[in-house]
Design goal:
single chain; 214 residues; FAD/NAD-bd_sf; mainly alpha; 3-stranded antiparallel beta sheet; Zeta_carotene_desat/Oxidored; 3 strands; oxidoreductase activity
């Protein structure tokens, strides 16, 4: 909080005061209030609370993209309030950590090793053509595009939401659980990783998100 109050480069004091007053209902109302804001976008909630649009432009475009890769006029305010509660209530809630190496080696490999240690199997480059079902609607097997059939006790189907909608068995599409997928829309994201051959001077070891609208 002290860091926010000291930062005069992004927001003016009147903007900070209006933003703080706007957040009071979320602080006082607790989790019940946070959950009730799911129907409002970040932009709608800010205007409803009398927070200047410049606060949204200067702060919440970047924060919205950091959380869900979309803009404040699309993101649910519930997501923002959950994050803000973490920042405000925990001593190190606003700190960010990074892997001490590349993700395949430092993140993915330990997960694979753990699954394998429990008798599981991880298959790469195995594209699913069809999810085949038993008569009771449970998964019978996965049919791969190369013709192989995968049988297992449990499956993890990692795919973008748009592909999942196409792969979903017809029997499942009318189930209430899966009908909620209709409201999910995929967000295209491009990450650019630049590796330098030396330490850059006068830089912060942070991940930066643009405040630009696109």
């Amino acid at each position: 909080i002290l860091a926010i109050l000291r930062n005069n480069e992004m927001l003016t004091w009147p903007e900070k005061v209006k933003f703080a007053i706007g957040l009071l209902p979320a602080i006082i109302g607790g989790q019940a209030y946070v959950e009730a804001q799911d129907g409002l976008t970040v932009q709608e909630w800010m205007r409803k609370q009398g927070v200047p649009d410049r606060v949204t432009t200067e702060v919440f475009i970047a924060m919205s993209k950091a959380l869900n890769f979309i803009n404040p006029d699309e993101l649910s305010m519930q997501c923002i309030l959950i994050a803000l509660n973490r920042f405000l209530q925990e001593k190190h809630g606003s700190k960010m950590a990074f892997l001490d190496g590349n993700p395949p080696e430092r993140l993915c490999l330990p997960i694979v090793e753990h699954i394998q240690s429990l008798g599981g199997e991880v298959r790469l480059n195995s594209r699913v053509q069809k999810i085949e079902l038993n008569d009771d609607g449970t998964v019978k097997n996965f049919l791969l595009t190369n013709g192989n059939v995968i049988d297992g006790d449990a499956y993890v189907f990692a795919t973008p939401v748009d592909i999942l909608k196409l792969q979903l068995p017809e029997n499942w599409k009318e189930m209430a659980y899966f009908k909620r997928l209709e409201k999910l829309v995929g967000v295209p994201v491009i990450n650019i990783h630049i590796w330098f051959d030396r330490k850059l001077k006068n830089t912060y070891d942070h991940l930066l998100f643009s405040r630009s609208a696109p």
